[in-house]
What we know:
Layout: E1 2-4, H1 18-27, E2 30-35, H2 44-54, E3 57-68, E4 71-78, H3 85-111, H4 117-122, H5 133-143, H6 149-157, H7 172-181, E5 185-188, H8 198-210, E6 215-220, H9 225-238, E7 241-245, H10 274-280
Parallel strand pairs: 1-2, 2-3, 5-6, 6-7
Antiparallel strand pairs: 3-4, 4-5
Helix pairs in contact: 1-2, 5-6
The structure holds adenosine monophosphate and manganese (II) ion (MN) (3 copies).
Amino acid sequence: xxxxxxxxxxxxxxxxxxxxxxxxxxxxxxxxxxxxxxxxxxxxxxxxxxxxxxxxxxxxxxxxxxxxxxxxxxxxxxxxxxxxxxxxxxxxxxxxxxxxxxxxxxxxxxxxxxxxxxxxxxxxxxxxxxxxxxxxxxxxxxxxxxxxxxxxxxxxxxxxxxxxxxxxxxxxxxxxxxxxxxxxxxxxxxxxxxxxxxxxxxxxxxxxxxxxxxxxxxxxxxxxxxxxxxxxxxxxxxxxxxxxxxxxxxxxxxxxxxxxxxxxxxxxxxxxxxxxxxxxx
Length: 281
Ligand code: AMP
Ligand code: MN
Ligand code: MN
Ligand code: MN
């Protein structure tokens, strides 16, 4: 049975509706799936109904945007209560910042010679407050400014590029607190993707653990085999469990559902933890 504890629907920056994500995961042999939309919980009800129809175990998840040492760091919450009011309200406040940031991204892109990007990106977002850099990327591919989403990030949207703007998301400890307050476990997402050196990365993991973080994504689709081993070792060192996920967004855009590297290293697998197993039952 395949396990995938990180993916997105059109409620955030994925391309498929929550039910279609679940259906696709089931068709690809995923037996345990967590839907983890950026900063929102409202795809989970539709996903749960679809999971029942397709005989798949669903974990209620979310991916919370935080800023740590000036860099965007993502924290996945697993087995959260989607009805938890405090979590929902905190995420709502966090999302509100996406509209204003989107205006600033559009201004920056205009200076780089790309007009009307706010309206263009907004067409791809289910709701204005879901507006993500991925939506800008899809619009820039549409206009021919770049060849694919990765290319847009490389040329326009990554830190230091003309369409990048600074933004303050939640603090790391806040994200962990919101997730735990909603009964969930906090997982540090795709640690191999952050632009930190070895010391800062260890400091991040240690702080995350000290705030109450429970796991770290080890078997991520974006990790090389070497990174899987490296983060398994760090997980063990800091007493964290290992999670896995594809970070699926859209067919043909990055990894597919259930496509995660094998975790063939001795480390505690988060999906075997009781709380997660119960939540998926
Ligand atoms: P945002 O939350 O609006 O800052 O957007 C972050 C999202 O952009 C991530 O969740 C990814 O889906 C996407 N993203 C970030 N960096 C890249 C990249 N280099 N290539 C493709 N997608 C990326
Ligand atoms: Mn995303
Ligand atoms: Mn992420
Ligand atoms: Mn993600």
